[in-house]
Amino acid sequence: MQKSEDFTRLRSSFRSFAIPMTISFLVWYFAYVLLSTYAEGFMSIPVLGNLNIGLLMGLSQFLMTFLITWLYIRHANKSLDPIAEKLRHELEGDL
């Protein structure tokens, strides 16, 4: 099964989404950590009332997590689930 074309497509489709999303999230996260450590002046710039850039960037980590989750669900429903369903039926002998 691992050498089948469908399984290869499933693995490739998953990786083409997961790897870039993981890298982009880690870059954003480490940028936040490094900026909060080494650029305190920048992070403390007020934006609106008591909200500063550091707080907004920290809150954006949650938004980024929700966005990536939503994008993954959309990608899985469109690209991964149909192939996985087909493979499951082949493995279980439903076809």
Automatic annotation (TrEMBL):
Pfam annotation, one family: DUF485
The UniProt record lists the keyword Membrane: yes
Tagged with keyword Transmembrane: yes
Keywords, ordered alphabetically: Membrane, Transmembrane, Transmembrane helix
Source domain of life: Bacteria
Transmembrane segments: 12-31, 51-73
Protein name stated in the entry: Uncharacterized membrane protein (DUF485 family)
Lineage: Bacteria, Bacillati, Actinomycetota, Actinomycetes, Micrococcales
